[in-house]
Amino acid sequence: MSLAIMGDGMYEELRHFNEKVARAYRLEELPLCWVYIVTARVLRSIVRPPARILEIGPGTGRLANMLAGYGYYVVGVDISLPMLRQARRFNRPDFINGTSWQMPIVNGRFDAVVATLTLHHWSKREESIRIIYELLRPGSALIIVEADKDRVRFVGSHGCTERCFTELLSPYFSISIRKMFPLIIAIGKKLK
Predict the structure, then answer these.
(1) pTM, rounded to two decimals
(2) Which of the listed residues 56, 96, 123, 190 has the most CB atoms within 10 Å of its CB?
(3) Domain edges within the chain
């Protein structure tokens, strides 16, 4: 995907997720494993394998690989080619280059979409949610896991609140919220 297609503001984000940062994220995988386990547990309570799962922002691919190990068919879409190079060390999930608002994927193909600790990076949130809605099959779910800004104030922009989730998701999804300190988890069931 070229910078011209992605538009203004994306060059800075791409520069941030360079090779050095991608290698550093590999070191953060182990401390974050508990977040991936929580996310996988929530997903497994909603959708059973061999469901088709889209992970937005798989980073180095640890969660996507975990889900593939449970028998899900997983596609990860990430804006950063260096991150995707790290993720491709796993051979089961499929990884593609794209953004949350521009994905080279056919609508109505997924049983669930998962975004773990990535929503705060989405520059076009409303557009992204509309596109995610279109990618989901009827009766499917969107699961977003973020730091709970209501209870963990030092996370700055790297988190979300219950209000944030409600305002963003309610036009398209029936929402339930789970709080598991320090996380907040939004589960959106597709309305139509």
Answers:
(1) 0.85
(2) 56
(3) 3-190
Topology of domain 3-190 in CATH is Rossmann fold (3.40.50)
SS (HEC) of the chain: CCHHHHCCCHHHHHHHCCHHHHHHHHHHHHHHHHHHHHHHHHHHHHCCCCCEEEEECCCCCHHHHHHHHCCCEEEEEECCHHHHHHHCCCCCCEEEECECCECCCCCCCEEEEEEECCHHHCCCHHHHHHHHHHHEEEEEEEEEEEEECCCCHHHCCCCECHHHHHHHHCCCEEEEEEEECCEEEEEEEECC
